[in-house]
Write a structure and sequence with these properties.
The chain is mainly alpha-helical and about 210 residues long. It has helices spanning about 5-15, 30-40, 45-60, 60-65, 70-75, 85-100, 110, 120-130, 140-150, 155-165, 175-185. It is elongated.
Length: about 210
């Protein structure tokens, strides 16, 4: 079986188990999703979804965030960890979007990764979820699962992203990543994988 064939089988298997492929971060516009994704680094999506509503209630626009006192943003995002860096990045992202991108969240990896605190994982999420472009969000779940089933043989996020872009159907790549997150949380966990319940087990290389 080639890697492209394996990728297709994996896509279909996860699609059957998780018909709805959605991002677990709650946001009502592109900038809110950008902020939520920045906060999710070293923090659970569930906690981010608790932290963001009151902040988004106070700061409703990119202009609001650009003019915000960083110390006030720190107070909101403190539960997410690394709050000083994240708060500074959020204000900095808003300011750069206004100054360099006419107030619109960029739609490509190169411009997105110019924003403070935005790496390729976040950039791919925005490209995929906001702009509907082929994207591979190389988070820990995707990296673990794609290695276990033999789609890649590296744990380097950028290499995983680029290798998967070569073998995943472009129209399925973003949803596949979301489904891997769901699968990684409830079945293919890092420590105690539920291999008997896994619908990828027939071609998984993990030995229990």
């Amino acid at each position: 079986m080639t890697k492209k064939e394996l990728a297709l089988r994996s896509v279909e298997a996860l699609k059957e188990k998780y018909p709805e492929a959605i991002c677990s971060l709650v946001a009502s516009n592109p900038f809110e999703l950008l902020v939520a994704t920045r906060l999710s680094a070293q923090c659970t999506d569930a906690r981010v979804n608790i932290v963001t509503p009151p902040m988004f209630e106070k700061y409703r626009t990119i202009e609001d965030f650009a003019a915000a006192d960083v110390a006030d943003i720190e107070n909101f995002v403190r539960p997410c960890g690394f709050f000083r860096t994240k708060a500074a990045d959020i204000v900095g992202m808003a300011q750069m979007i206004l100054s360099d991108f006419d107030g619109k969240v960029p739609d490509n990896i190169e411009d997105l990764t110019r924003l403070p605190g935005v790496g390729r994982k976040t950039a791919n999420l925005i490209c995929g979820d906001v702009y509907g472009k082929p994207a591979v969000v190389a988070d820990t779940h995707l990296i673990r699962i794609s290695n276990r089933i033999g789609l890649v043989e590296t744990k380097d996020p950028k290499k995983v992203e680029l290798e998967l872009k070569k073998i995943l159907p472009p129209e399925e790549s973003n949803d596949f990543c979301h489904r891997c997150v769901l699968h990684g949380r409830d079945t293919c966990t890092a420590r105690k994988a539920k291999c008997d319940e896994c619908n990828l087990k027939d071609f998984c290389k993990k030995k229990i």
